[in-house]
Specification:
InterPro entries: MntS (IPR047782). This protein has two helices and no strands. By secondary structure, the chain is mainly alpha-helical.
């Protein structure tokens, strides 16, 4: 939980561009995770 709070603090104090980048990475990770059993192309 402490790690999570630290990450959250870094996230909230980071500039908007960095937040956007992190959110995009997170979205990609979430979107790609359930589709691993299917062929990507």
């Amino acid at each position: 939980m402490n790690e999570f709070k630290r990450c959250l603090r870094v996230f909230t104090h980071s500039p908007f561009k960095v937040r956007l980048m992190l959110l995009n990475m997170l979205c990609d990770y979430i979107n790609n995770k359930p589709q691993q059993d299917k062929p990507s192309h």
